[in-house]
Q: What sequence folds into this?
């Protein structure tokens, strides 16, 4: 019995030693792998929108990918949730830049072209082309404009005149198994609600108008059942 006990003790000490060794080695392996993966993630390929992206980022416009170009593009992609974030000047990155430019140009007069009705009183306007939404009362801007994330290809947010018919402050989607805080439904299963994503994160929602949490909360406080919603335009890339 003593021999068996000694053998068990040896096995236990050996297992502990291996476990400790594994714990000591693990950080080095994780750090090494992570560093290598991060370095490999920066592409050397020149994208189809290289010159446009370089100009947007105030980089030297030569149409050739450099390490500095890649780092600048990666920073933009990670800031705005563009994936994959490998520093490639592709169509999604350039489309995001154009959308941001259009959003900035909207300023405090998003309905300058009067595409959203001004004869309905309180109304939530959704411009799919610029990925913007705002609330107006007649022609007076009440809130916004704010960036939104509408439906992806195949799940487009439907256009036209709508009305809010159901509000649920903490809605659970039984279809997609996710929380939809500050949900305000205006067309079938399509609703305003907040998400923990960048508004420019591709490819888009399953038809809802995604919003930042603070914006969705303000919409919740300003709108009520029966209020008008008007959706127009077309999301880039759909």
A:
């Amino acid at each position: 019995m003593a021999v068996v006990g000694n053998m068990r003790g040896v096995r236990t000490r050996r297992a502990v030693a291996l476990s400790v060794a594994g714990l000591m080695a693990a950080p080095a392996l994780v750090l090494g792998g992570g560093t290598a993966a991060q370095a490999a993630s920066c592409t050397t390929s020149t994208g189809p929108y290289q010159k446009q992206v370089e100009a947007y980022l105030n980089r030297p416009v030569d149409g050739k990918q450099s390490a500095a170009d890649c780092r600048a593009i990666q920073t933009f992609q990670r800031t705005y949730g563009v994936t994959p974030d490998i520093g490639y000047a592709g169509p999604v990155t350039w489309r995001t830049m154009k959308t941001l430019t259009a959003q900035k140009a909207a300023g405090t007069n998003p309905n300058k072209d009067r595409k959203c009705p001004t004869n309905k009183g309180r109304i939530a306007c959704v411009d799919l082309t610029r990925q913007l939404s705002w609330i107006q009362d007649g022609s007076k801007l009440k809130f916004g404009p704010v960036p939104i994330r509408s439906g992806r290809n195949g799940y487009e947010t439907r256009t036209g005149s709508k009305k809010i018919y159901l509000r649920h402050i903490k809605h659970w989607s039984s279809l997609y198994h996710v929380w939809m805080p500050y949900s305000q439904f205006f067309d079938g299963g399509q609703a305003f609600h907040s998400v923990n994503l960048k508004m420019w994160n591709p490819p888009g929602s399953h038809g809802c108008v995604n919003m930042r949490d603070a914006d969705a909360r303000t919409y919740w406080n300003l709108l009520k059942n029966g209020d008008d919603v008007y959706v127009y335009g077309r999301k880039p890339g759909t």
